[in-house]
Amino acid sequence: MKNESQGFSLLGFRTNTWWKKILSILYLCVCALIALGSIFEEKFENITTKDFVIDKLYYIVFLLAMLSPYIFLSNTRFRDKIPLFNKHTKSASVVGMIIVIFVFALLCGVVDSLHSEEYKADMENHAYKKTVVTEATCETDGEIDCHCEYCGLYTTETIKATGHKMVQVSADEDKIVNKCEVCGEEKTEVLEKQSTTETTTIKSETNTQKPVTTTEPEEVITFEEIYTDYQRNELAADDKYKGNRYKITGTIQTVNDGGLNGLFGELSVTVIAYANGTQCFLWCTFDEETQRDALTKVSMGDTITFEGTCESWGNWHDCEIVE
Ligand SMILES: [Zn+2]
Ligand SMILES: [Zn+2]
């Protein structure tokens, strides 16, 4: 219990404890920074004066709330006139501060609710004006600048690369030439008699010579069918194909040993397969122990047939090279 006639002493300086003084000064610095920030904060672009004033009022109430321990707990004449606080006991002060903070929180809510509907709507969902900075190409992502005309907030969005739109331009016995309608990139598939590129070739092949391998799927499903079904409905395609093993023929794009997959004893290979004239990039993982030797022999552009477990049309695991 302290006496009433103590004169003025600020919170943190009421007793002569060094760490209380330092803590008190640091806290006041934070308050000062918030105050400075609110003063120098720029006015939003299209905000009304009313909303601007309410914004500042909110800051003032917020700052007063932060400074309330100083107002009510510093030993001043003011304190001695306020019920609870004038008792100068810990329990009365705690109860008093809970009430004060509650009142300030209520006040902040009230001030905030004064904002115009426009302002509130923008805080939830900005009125962005979008400008395309870089167009997406077949292979690279594009970028969009988003600028909120109401509050002035800037942000960016990416546009996904579109992927090539391959169409077959010529085909004869030895090769099929596909060309991208958009960028003009050409891909040539060399066909070697029977057992190569197109998935249709596998179909006829497996029909003539009955399954030799043990894990042969009963009916032969081409990559084109899988891809088409996935484009139509991913969920239905998952039910139909996910977890099953299929044979796919395509050309090697990249062979990687490392990355995260390396930790799990897996090698990752990107294979290009075609479906409906579209070039599809397949991400395939092979078991390092059993498939390493076979994979060291292939290089980019080579045609391979592998069997793998379907995760989605573009994702295959536990792959094994068939030929
Ligand atoms: Zn905005
Ligand atoms: Zn292209």
Layout of secondary structure:
Elements lengths: L17 H23 L8 H25 L16 H24 L3 H8 L3 E7 L7 E7 L5 E6 L6 E6 L3 E6 L5 E5 L8 H10 L14 H10 L1 H8 L3 E12 L2 H5 L2 E10 L2 E10 H9 L6 E10 L2 E7 L2
Parallel strand pairs: 9-11
Antiparallel strand pairs: 1-2, 2-3, 4-5, 5-6, 7-8, 7-10, 8-9, 10-11
The structure holds zinc ion (2 copies).
One zinc ion binds next to loops.
Provide structural commentary:
Helix 2 (49-73) runs antiparallel to helix 3 and helix 6 runs antiparallel to helix 7. The protein is of the alpha+beta class. The strands form three sheets. It has a five-stranded mixed β-barrel with strand order 7-8-9-11-10. The chain has a three-stranded antiparallel beta sheet with strand order 1-2-3, with no helix packed on it. Strands 4-5-6 form a three-stranded antiparallel beta sheet, with no helix packed on it. It is built from nine helices and eleven strands. The chain is elongated and about 105 Å long. The protein folds into three domains: 18-122; 126-159, no CATH class; 194-321, OB fold (Dihydrolipoamide Acetyltransferase, E2P) (Beta Barrel), CATH 2.40.50. The relative contact order is 0.07. One zinc ion binds at residues 122, 126, 148, 150-151, 153.
